[in-house]
Each structure stands twice: as C-alpha cells, then as structure tokens.
Structure prediction request, 220 residues.
Amino acid sequence: MKSITYSEDQLLPISAIAHFCYCERRYALIHLEQLWAENRFTVEGEILHERVHAEHHESRKYFRQEYSMAVRSLAWGLIGKCDLVELWLNKDGSRQKVSPVEFKRGRKKESDVDRVQLCAQALCLEEMLGVTIESGQFYYWQEHRRSDVLIDQALREVTIGLLERIRALQDSGQTPQAEYEKRKCDNCSLVDSCMPKSTNARAKQVERFIQNNLHLIKEL
Ligand code: SF4
Prediction:
C-alpha cells in the first residue's frame, strides 16, 4: 500500500480518467477551465446511472450489494462513485471478497478506459475496506449480462501510469491545442466551445508566422 500523500482538495475524480483518455484537451477544458456541455452520450450515461440506483438491491446473510457507493483513496488521490459494490462476508462478519460492478450502455465492448476506471475504483475500495480486490465486472444493460475483469498487476500499472500523466497535465495548468479528429470531435459534447477546426488552424497560422519571421525575431 502506498503511503498517504494527497489531501481532500487534491483528489482527482475517477470520471476524469475517461475525459483524459478520450482527449487530453477535453480533460483540460473540463477540469482546468471548468467547461461542461451535455450531448446525447453524456445524457444517456446519466439516465443509465439513475436507472441503476432504482434497481433491485439484494441482501442476504453473507452477501450484500451496495449501490452508488462513494469511494476515495488518499494514497492514490482519487474520488468517485461505484455503480455497485458486491460484498461476500465470512461467518464471523469479516469480508471474504469485494467486487466493483460498473454498468454500461449497450453491448460488450469495454475498452482499456473502462478497465482503468474499474481498477481506480478497486484501488479506492482496497484502501477503504482493507481488502485486496482481484476482479471486478461490467454489466451490459442491453445484453443483461456481466463480464469479468481481472484487476491484475498489468492493469494496475497502466492505471497508475495514467494517473501520473493526468497529474502532470493538471500541474502544468496548460490546455493542449486542439487536434481535429472526425471520429472523436464530432461526438464530443464540447465541440462548440473547443472549435477544434478553427483553433487548430489558428495555432498553425501563428506557428507558420513565427517560422517565417524567425530571422526578424533573432535580430531583436
Ligand atoms: S472537440 Fe475534439 S479536440 Fe476538442 S475537446 Fe473534443 S475531442 Fe478534444
């Protein structure tokens, strides 16, 4: 276990990992410049999570389900919410197994981003509950079925490396330039604020101007 290094106001939201993986500029617009806009995908995600919390809660003698569980880790500097945490108990009441479950729209297609977010939830639960988490699950709403994810060393290393990159961007305070990519920009809720085509073109114009006038700048 890592020693405690982060204070409450330094905690990164687990949801920020998805923004960063989708586009580093998107992360910076939301988390450095405090911009946010909804689109179909963000609204569908919220509706799904509301439905999750209205679902059946199961509780037996040695098994419990906790929906919408707030989690955090001061060691890893993370804060967030698990859609569902399942806990299996031993007869003496101690925890035998803990597993986070993340609900997804549509069919099975989890990406590394999804796995990293699940791993971040597991890191928080391990610190909060004093357990080791070996696996989690995704639940696919459209298919009504679950898929297992191993929280192994490789996934932990990817997650920790990503957290370091996010913190480096956060500490730099610099919003990266826009790079227009049809596939991601056309589905991004921030496209109107970001203006990836024009901001990219403007940045290139400035760069060209500097290159063309480098000799003048050197003479100054
Ligand atoms: S519009 Fe494109 S470049 Fe801009 S934040 Fe969204 S994904 Fe990133």
In short: The mean pLDDT is 85. The two ends are 55 Å apart (CA to CA). The chain has two domains: 8-174, 177-220. Residues 177-220 form one domain.
